[in-house]
Design brief:
With 351 residues, this protein is an alpha+beta fold. It has helices spanning 8-20, 69-79, 117-121, 125-144, 161-176, 182-197, 245-254, 260-264, 278-287, 296-319, 331-346; strands at residues 30-33, 41-46, 51-56, 89-93, 103-107, 206-208, 217-220, 230-234, 241-243. Helices cover 42% and strands 12% of the residues. It has a 5-stranded antiparallel β-sheet, with helices on both faces. A two-stranded antiparallel ribbon has the order 6-9. A two-stranded antiparallel sheet has the order 7-8.
Length: 351
């Protein structure tokens, strides 16, 4: 048994929380760890008749302010009545004595998570084009949500988003980047300092996902390869907040960098050269009715910095013995590449 397995006692505790939320269980719960997570653990729960998905933090190697599944649950529940496709919110438990951390449960959504390169390569050009349109329209729809009207007024400060992001990820770097070599730490210091002098101006405010890309959605394909692709649900809301929508687009674009394969540990769908490049994705988002992409180069540089820190955090947990498997042992190699790409984005930007 690994430390990520749920014991019968833990499963019964989860079942109790679900029953308190009004869920009628047909049989005792079973669980299966869903592969692919690099931060929170994601389990599929079954009672023989229905299925749910549960998110909970890793058992060890956590970093402060990360892994907030209760926060994820709050935004998913608030977005339920909107045009943004999300899983049905079921229950959240912040009593860490049950599993060693908080956990949140949503209904299981029938859809495909296109994560690996070979999964994307199996799609037709028409399916790929439709997928990009669907992703762009969904992100634009999220950015049109009135966060006050859906009860997320206190979900995050509406202003100074770039400044807060820079401060947050710099603080995380001080925790997870100290074990890396001097050259990498120097790259991080240089990028952080240049960003501090060139932070983008915020001109719009809305709900931001913070980790938006193809494999953080569940998509549905029609039986006919020429049919329109739809997004069944956007998942993994751990980094969501109220902030600058342009940053969401920049994050999505930065994940297209080939270095992201090192974070995942294998060729992933989102880095495929069959998909649009940064300019193409940005254009697709604007065509879908998204916000104007002002100061986009600075946003891209900040997104590279964020992804570099996240990669260092994965490496940090790996070195702490809290994570094993594909991607955990190669994420550290991505850090200098991402920091360098961030500096390159700022090369032509005046301070």
């Amino acid at each position: 048994m690994t430390t990520n397995d749920l014991t019968p006692v833990e499963l019964e505790a989860v079942a109790g929380v679900m029953r308190d939320a009004g869920v009628v269980l047909e049989r005792p719960l079973t669980s299966r760890l869903i592969a692919g997570g690099r931060s929170n653990l994601t389990f599929r729960l079954d009672d023989g008749a229905s299925a749910w998905v549960m998110r909970t933090p890793p058992r060890a190697g956590r970093t402060p302010s990360a892994h907030d599944v209760a926060r994820e649950f709050r935004v998913v529940k608030a977005l339920g009545p909107t045009d943004v496709p999300v899983a049905p919110a079921v229950a959240v438990c912040e009593d860490e004595s049950l599993l060693g951390g908080a956990f949140a449960i949503c209904g299981f959504v029938d859809g495909r998570a296109v994560q690996a390169r070979d999964e994307l390569e199996a799609l037709t050009d028409a399916q790929l084009d439709s997928t990009v349109v669907a992703l762009s329209e969904t992100l634009a729809a999220l950015h049109r949500v009135d966060h006050v009207a859906v009860g997320l007024e206190r979900f995050g400060r509406p202003d100074a988003y770039a400044e807060r992001q820079h401060k947050r990820w710099s603080g995380q770097w001080e925790i997870v980047g100290t074990h890396l070599d001097d050259d990498v730490r120097d790259l991080a210091r240089r990028l952080s300092a240049r960003l501090a002098d060139r932070l983008p101006e915020q001109v719009s405010t809305g709900v931001v996902h913070g980790d938006y890309r193809l494999d953080n959605t569940l998509v549905r394909f029609g039986d006919d390869p020429g049919e329109t692709v739809t997004v069944a649900a956007v998942v993994d809301w751990e980094l969501s907040t109220i902030g600058d929508p342009v940053a969401d687009v920049a994050n999505m674009c930065v994940y297209r960098d080939p270095a992201f394969d090192l974070v995942i540990g294998s060729p992933c769908a989102w880095t495929s050269d069959r998909l649009p490049d940064v300019d193409g994705l940005a254009a697709a988002y604007e065509k879908a009715g998204g916000v104007p992409l002002r100061d986009f180069e600075q946003h891209l540089a900040l997104a590279y910095y964020k992804l570099a820190v996240i990669s260092a955090g994965i490496d940090h947990r790996f070195r702490a013995g809290a994570a094993h498997g594909s991607g955990f042992d190669t994420a550290g190699q991505a850090v200098p590449l991402l920091l360098g790409a961030g500096l390159a984005r700022l090369a032509g930007v005046e301070g």
